[in-house]
Design brief:
The structure holds 2 protein chains of 2 kinds. Chain A is mainly alpha-helical. Chain A has a single domain (about 25-510), classed as Up-down Bundle (Cytochrome C Oxidase, Chain A), CATH 1.20.210.10. Helices cover about 65% and strands about 0% of the residues of chain A. In chain A, helix 4 (about 90-105) packs parallel to helix 14, helix 9 runs parallel beside helix 11 (about 315-340) and helix 11 packs antiparallel against helix 12 (about 350-375). By secondary structure, chain B is α+β, with helices and mostly antiparallel strands. In chain B, about 30% of the residues lie in helices and about 25% in strands. Classes of the chains: A mainly alpha, B alpha+beta. Chains A and B meet through helix 3, helix 9, helix 10, helix 11 and helix 12 of A and helix 1, helix 2, strand 7 and strand 9 of B. Bound molecules: copper (II) ion (2 copies). One copper (II) ion binds near residues 140, 175, 179, 183 and 186 of chain B. One copper (II) ion binds near residues 106, 140, 179 and 183 of chain B.
Chain lengths: ~525, ~300
Amino acid sequence: METQNNQLNYIEDTQGRWGIFAWIFSTDHKRIGILYLISITTFFLLAALMGGLMRLELIAPGETIMDAQTYNGLFTVHGIIMIFLVVIPGLGAVFGNFFLPIMIGARDVAFPRLNLFSWWIYMAGAILAVYSQFAGDGPPDTGWTFYAPYSTESGTNVVAAVFAAFVLGFSSILTGLNFIVTIHRMRAPGMTWFKMPLFPWSLYATAWIQVLATPIVGITLMMIVAERLFQIGFFDPALGGDPILYQHLFWIYSHPAVYIMILPAMGVITEIIPTFAKKSIFGYKAIALSSVAIAAVGYFVWGHHMYTSGMSGTARWFFSFLTFIVAIPSAIKVFNWVATMYKGSIDARTPFLYAATFIFLFMIGGLTGLVLGSLATDVHVHDTSFVVAHFHYIIFGGMGFAFFAAIHYWWPKMFGKMYNERVANIAWLITFVGFNVLYFPLFVIGIQGMPRRYFDYLPEFHAGHLISTIGAFILLSGLFLMIINIYRAKKHVTPAGDNPWGGVTLEWQVPSPPPTLNFDEIPTITKSPYSFEK
Amino acid sequence: MTILQIFSGASNFVEGVDTAFVLIFGVSFFFLFGITAVMIYFIYKYHKSRNPVATQIEGSNTLEVIWTVIPLIIVLVMFYYGYKGYAVMREVPEDAITVKVISYMWDWDFEYENGKLSKDLYVPLNKAVKLELTSLDVIHSLYIPAFRVKEDAVPGVANYMWFIAQLEGSYDILCAEYCGLRHSYMEAQAIVVPEEEYLAWLADFDPEVKDPKGLEIMRANACMGCHSLDGAKLVGPSFKGIFGSERTVIVDGKTTTVVADEDYMKRAITDPNKEVVAGFQPNLMQSYKKIIAEEDINHIVDYLKTIE
Ligand SMILES: [Cu+2]
Ligand SMILES: [Cu+2]
């Protein structure tokens, strides 16, 4: 395809490398974004199938298709893959890599080789994670949280899995570092902080969490390994350690990790709504600063995972209080998104449908988070399927639906081809319905007292589990339809055009697919990023 | 009595907890439906077919302040009710009866003030009961949904919980912290009876008649999470009638039979993965060679001989 300026686009420009090497050795941020897209989609499908198998096992009480040990391994592996390989890198690694430089008017990230290296580390960690499932004494069965002392005693392949998470942490730290420097140093002339689009803003807040919080979990996981291999005794009381210490260290990272997933998701939604409402974002500064507020306060709420662990009374109310406070910046974003639709001229195409359902699902996730932040109610629903439903609404309904929104929004830009929009809308509806049928019943049985990570359950929870399993299969079919439809876009002959949605941020001003260097000439920025006035 | 009713009053905490639930859910549904309705209305009203040209609005500081302050007040009210419903859970009345909870993979033992042990938790009606939570191995969490109480049993940490049961009946006790293979089977009942009945039950116990020493050692080492005495197959084989019987075992991949004499049982405890009982997984049971003194292992074996 010919581009405006007769430059090769990034897909055609192999830079003299052959076949697959043109991808796995390329330092082009766009090619690296695609590498992550392929790897992350693969792992997502794998872990989603595991989720489907778990739901099938739970369709009826008693053993259905697998034994308890297999089930315990499955929910552990499902969690490890989804958290460390899919949602934590997720939007930042795929769309951040591809679009951050273009959206701020740069030719690449600050450290392109480091960027490629991050992907290689990611793959090394991923291979290790998959290896841990098949080698040694069976898949790890600790849950993705690796709680001590179970994790220091379990006879399964815990060390490999923990080490995989450790390696993956480096990839996350390096990507974060790269983005911070890129955003500080490489914005186009005239792009002041408050003229920067909001997806880059969210990546900026996220990157700081990645850099500051990830080392903590790295060290913690190494302590588990040291304890298993050398009986050091950090966490196991039998060796003189403290199991509660482990939980603190683990959640100091793993709560902020929730924001690593959700902040870029919010950034994506903030890009999509103005484009389809043909209207400037409402409350630009409020949205930008609320990302920073979430990142900052989000550091100090980890204890809400531990209300029943025997923490001191003071710590319990302190963490509860801050948890309620951190809800506010999220609420501010929701209000601003809805206000952006007011007096817009709305074109409800596929990305917008995903964005609107994101708001709905994210609200359910956030509001049920209040139940878990509140002390009295958390004591009852902590470690029940209520929690499982809550975080799937946030992570899957939030981050996942934002990912689907992003892929439908930016696909024509990335590959120059449009998918079939009718089929995309049908897949959206199936996915949305399946999602709710799958996860909503888990709230109900959670309130009734159904603990999580249960291979088997009491008969009164059967109806809820049955409905949930049916939802899982509706959801999976929606996902397959979506993916096949997007993939088939390549068959379309007519190019999607440079700006199919009428967006105004910089990525819509370069050709589709973008040329290797993104811009002929670096643009000078004079207007706010969402200025639709001609 | 397993399905939860809101405000059932099964324990003294139900009201405070359920009040917080009702408050948070009430406000949440209001915002969820309100915001969703407004959003759908906007999408309809300002669809490009009805409103071809958007009006550009950059924002409004007044609105930002309003939708920061109002939610802030609301969440602080929620925080308060959550705290209030919870604070009482940490204040144990002085006259509370103490029951020690011994949790282990994958069962509960309850030990009362006079030394009596039980598998289900007996509780007198309308009396404060304090549970002292201990664990012999990994973290468990004692959860009684109907009472709205839960607290982790952490090895090496002295955690507690308390409640007053206010309705007679039998309520599920579940383990809420994932603890391995049989986590979902780690259940018991909380049996609430009138006080006289409770006292009679408690007194039906002679502290002089001690359990055999071997059984106590096995309890203390959590053998009973995997082995039963009554023939039930758990993770490991049942000890019922084990002594002198013929066992089919797999040694280095070959199936043979041995007679379970004293020596065999000692080997099964000190080197359990050498001769693996057919139909069971190797590597689940660890070697107790360094954990239990030889003398105590002899006590165990003596006891095992008596189970018919
Ligand atoms: Cu958290
Ligand atoms: Cu347990």
